[in-house]
Amino acid sequence: MRITPLDVRNHVFPRRWLGYDREEVDTFLRMVSSDYEASLRELEALRDQIGQLEGRLQELLGNERLLQETLTSAQQLSQDLKSTAVKEAEVIVSEAEIQGEKVLEAAHRRAARLAEDLREMKRLRGRVSTAMRASLEHHLKLVEELSQDPPDEEPLEGRLAALTESR
Known about the structure:
Blueprint: H1 5-10, H2 22-147, H3 156-166
């Protein structure tokens, strides 16, 4: 059983012959009772404070768990984002390589067409050159024939007619 400050104040000691001084015992009991009451109040206040601190501790532990979970989630999300970014980069690089190959292939086809066009132009130049040479040689032959003195037997008109027919 616990003794309360009120029990200390109200306690009555039996009287004995030549016993303790009653006034001094009562004063002492009042002091003890006051100190004891103050100690009990302080104890109760400390218990309340401990309860509050334990509640705060539980709250902080909950926050810590939440922060740890959040950190873990953030790390996982970071890893996922990093992994996704790497995959996207690989896809972009692959697409760029494919696009580059297509551009290179198109350039090769265009170069082959241009080379074929160049060969065709060279052949055409050769034919035009040959045709012009033949035409020039024909005209030179005509000029040579016209520049020669014609024999007196053949008239000039007949000779012109023969030349125009040979064309």
